[in-house]
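This section describes the prediction task in plain terms. A model, or a person checking by hand, is given the sequence of a single protein chain and must write out its three-dimensional structure as a string of tokens. No templates, partner chains or ligands are provided. The sample shown here is typical of the held-out split.
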Amino acid sequence: MAEAAQGPRRALPPPGRGPRFGPVDREKTCPLLLRVFTKTGSHHTNADFAVRGKEPKDEVQIYTWKDATLRELTDLVKEVAPAARRRNARLSFAFVYPDKHGHFVVREVGKTLSNGNGKLDDGKVLAELGFQIGDYLDVAIM
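The expected answer:
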């Protein structure tokens, strides 16, 4: 069973393909709890997540859906992290999940700009980036 945790789901989808899922009806679908860890300057390391129950202290819990865009998540992070509100702030998003050996891995999946100019990966949604319920989200604010 641990073998399946790493599997091909962690590879980024091929470029040029549309989403492999339908939009979520947010009126009828219960949101998921997303554990978000923020850090200024860089991402947390794999070692920061090595011991269950001793994850980094800068955690925010967000209720959202698998079709949430990185822009939506950027706006939510800006509400709780003052550093993310700076005009020139860049946010880098990474999924944190256990590999096939049970060790947590931090994998970058996209970037946004705080002010929304330049777009970057704003329109990417969690599901098409390979997010699975139970993954954490690590956000580096630069």
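For orientation: Helices lie at 2-6, 70-80.
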